[in-house]
Amino acid sequence: MSNRRSRITTDIDFGREGKQTGFLRLPHSVHRSAYGYIAIPVVAIGNGEGPRVLLTAGNHGDEYEGQIVLTKLARSLEVAAVRGSIVILPMMNFPAAQAGMRTSPIDEGNLNRTFPGDPDGRPTAMIAHYVESVLMPEVDAVIDLHSGGSSLIYVPGTLARHSTDRTQLDKVLGLVRAFGAPNSYLMGVGAEDRSILAAAERAGILGLSAELGGAGMVTRETLAITERGVVNALRHLGALEGRPEPRATRLLQVIRASHYVYSPDAGLFEPHAELGDHAKLGQLAGLVHFPDTPWREPAPVHFAGDGLVVCKRVPARVERGDCVYHLASDLAV
Ligand code: CA
User: Fold this and answer.
1) Is the pTM above the cut of 0.85?
2) Would residue 316 be called left, alpha or beta, if left means φ above 0 and alpha means ψ between -120 and 50 degrees?
3) What is the pLDDT of residue 313?
C-alpha cells in the first residue's frame, strides 16, 4: 500500500462532537471545470466516548436499499442517541451513484474491486484509498450496504467473511445475528482481496456487508430489513442507545466454484429455478435460446452443486460468462 497522502479533503472534523454535514472533496480537473472537485456527501455524528462506526452505501451506484436507508438515518439519528461516533457515506462512489451505475462513468471503476486504491489514481481509486487509509484507521467497524444491483436479485441477507480465527468469527457472527436479515451469507476464506471487507480485514476492524435485494429497485420489505438491520447492528456495537431486536437468520455459506452458475453462450435465458428453490447438482438451471437462429437447439445450463437459490440474474439477455444464479448452502458454526 502507498504511503502517499490522500488528495481528498473535507471540512468535517471526525473527532468533533455533534452532527456535522458536508462533503469529501475529490479534486477533479476536467475540461469544463479546471479547478473543480467531486463532492461526496458525508454526515458525521459524535457524542463522547464509544465505538466508532462507518456506514457506507453507493459502493455500487445501482444498489439503492442502503442509499435510501442511510439517507434516512443521516437525517433521523439524534446526537443524544449516539455513543461514540457514526460516519455516514450514502453515495461512497459518488459518480457511480449519481449515474445509477455499478461502476463510475468517469473511469469505469468498480469501487469494490479497487481497494486498497491509489491516492494518485483515477477517482474510484482515490475513493478506495481514502476509505481504507484515512477513514478505516479511525473506526472500529464498517457496515457497507449492497444488493444485487441492476443485473441480479438476492434473497435479502448480510454478507461477511468467514474467519479461521474463532474470536474474529464470533465477533462477525454477533454482528450478523444482530443485523438479523432473513439470510446471512458467509464467504469462504481467501475471498476477493480488493473489496471493502478485505480492506476492513487489513485495517483490523470489524466488517459487514449485505446483499439486500436488487434488480435496480427497492421494496417496502427490503427497505424495512435494511433499516431494522442497520439500527440493530448499531445497537449491538453500542454506538446507538437501545437494545437490538434481531430476528432469526439462516446462516449460509457461498462456495464460488460449486455455487455459481454461468451462461455458456449469448442469447435469451429461460430460467428453470426461482429464488428460494433448492437446487441439486446436475439439475437443469435454464436454457439459453437463440432467436437469431431459431432452428438451433437451446443450450442447457446445469447447477454445479447443491444449494439454496439465493441470487438470480434479472435481464433475460445474456452473454457468455454472465452469472445467471448463485446458490448457498446451510452452514453449521
Ligand atoms: Ca454490490
Assistant:
1) yes
2) alpha
3) 98
